[in-house]
Amino acid sequence: MKGSIISGAIQGFLAVALGAFAAHGLEDVLDDYGTGIWDTAVQYQMFHAAALILVGILMARPLFGDVKQLKVAMFCFNAGIFFFSGSLMVLALTGIKVLGAITPIGGVFFLIGWVMIILTAVKKA
Hints:
0% strand; 4 helices
């Protein structure tokens, strides 16, 4: 529970910091295409930072508790942020298009994380 909330808060902090960094520190580095890619990366990072906090709350004893599916969801959301958002940020900075092939791996991790929450709710409801 605590780990998910802490990782969500860290990811949220990083999303805000990286968004501000791009807006102020990379304005002369990124073109419109790169800025759009960076914005998508930060947006998905923030969505899944909130999801990590949600998973931590769902792990509370009065709700679902410390179930395996929620631990998997926590791992998947963190991995998804790393692969999805991370690859997009590197792509935006370098322009290396092959990095776009890594991005769907992160998307799959995100989807698995959401499925784990669904399975937990169905199983525990």
